Amino acid sequence: MDLSYKEAALKAFADKFGGDTNDVKCYFAPGRVNLIGEHTDYNGGHVFPCALTIGTYAAARKRSDRKLRFYSVNLDRSGVIETSLDDFKPLNEDGWTSYPKGVMWAFEKRGFRMDSGLDIVINGNIPNGSGLSSSASLEVLTGFIIRDIYGFDVKNVDLAIIGQDAENNYCGMNCGIMDQFASAMGKKDNAMFLDCATLNFEYAPVVLNDMELVVTNTNKKHKLVGSAYNDRRNECEKAREILAEVAGIKTLGDLSNEDFEKYKDAIKDPVVQKRAKHAVYENNRAVTAVDALKKGDIEAFGKLMNASHVSLRDDFEVTCEELDVLAEEAWKVPGVLGSRMTGGGFGGCTVSIVKKDSVEDFKKKVGEAYKKRVGYDCTFYEVSIGDGPSVI
Fold first, then answer.
1. Catalytic residue set
2. Which of 79, 105, 213, 265 could form an SS bridge with 88, CB 3.0 to 4.6 Å?
3. DSSP of 287-330, one letter per residue?
C-alpha cells in the first residue's frame, strides 16, 4: 500500500468538494493477479488468484441529500461527475462511474437502502486496462465504503457477490466471480484456491523463496465489455448444455480430462469443442498446480503456467500478438520458471515466476525483444501479495 495515493485523494477531495476534511474517511481495495485457472470461473471450475499491494484508494464523505458526486484523480479530464441515488440506469450507462453506481444499485436491490448520497474521490495505481482488475477493485472498494458508512450487515464475500452482480447486470460485462472475490478476500502472502461453483476456498501460502512474481504489461489496453469475452462465455454455455445431456454434468468444471475426451465428439462445432477443451483442461491444470505448490514444486507449477498460456492461445483464442510475444520471450530466459497471460485476455498483462537473480536479465531480454517485435515498450512490475479491503 502506498499512502501517497491516500494523501493525493484527500487533497483532491478538499480541492473539488471543499469543507473540512476531518470527517472524510479513506479506504483501499486491492487489484489481483491470477496465477492459474483462466476463464474457468464462469465454467464452475477452480481459480488461483491473489490480491496485490497495488489497488484503488478512495476518500469519501456522507452527504445530507441524495446527491452523488464522483471525481477520479486518474481521470482528471472527466472532472466532477454529479448524479443521484434516484438516477440508476442499468445496462445504459457509460463511463467509470457505472462501476460504483452499479454497486450502489446492487445494494439497493438487496434491500440495503442508502439514506443519503456520497462525495467520493478515487485514486488508484492499477494501470488502466492492464487486466489486473481495476474494475473489480473499484467495485469492492465501493461496497466496502457503503458497508462502513451506512453500517450494513454484509460480509466480505458478499461484497464480491454484489460487485459481480453490478458488473454483470449494471455494466453489462458477463464476468465470473474471481476478480471481485480475490479483491474482497485477499490475504497477505497467500493465494486463494477457489471453487467457483460453490465459493468454497482455501488460502494457500505462496512461498517463492528465491523467486519473484513479475507482472509485465503489454501496454495494449483491453476493453472486455462488448468484446469476444461474452462470446467465449456463450460458446462455453453451448458446450455445457450438450455435455450435460451426454455426461450428466452441471458445469464444465465437473469433467476430468478423460471424461472430456470420451464425450467431446457430441460437440459438433469444432470451435465450441475447443472452447470447452480449454475450460476442462485449465480447471484440472489449476487443481494440479495448487497441489504442486503445496509440495513446494515451483518448477512443476511453472510448467503448468506455460501450458495454460498455450491453451489460452490455441484453444480459447483470447491472447493477442503482444501477450504471445511476452510469453514466448519469457520462456527463453534462464531463471524463468513459468509465464502466462493473466486476466481476460486480448491485451493486458502476463505473470511470470522468475528467480530473483534473473529478474534484471529477464526485464532486459524480454523488454528488448518486445520492443523489436511489437514496436513499443512493455512495462514491468515486481508485485507483492497483499490483504483485502481496509480503512486507511
1. 179
2. 105
3. HHHHHHHHTT-HHHHHHHHHHHHHHHHHTS----HHHHHHHHHH
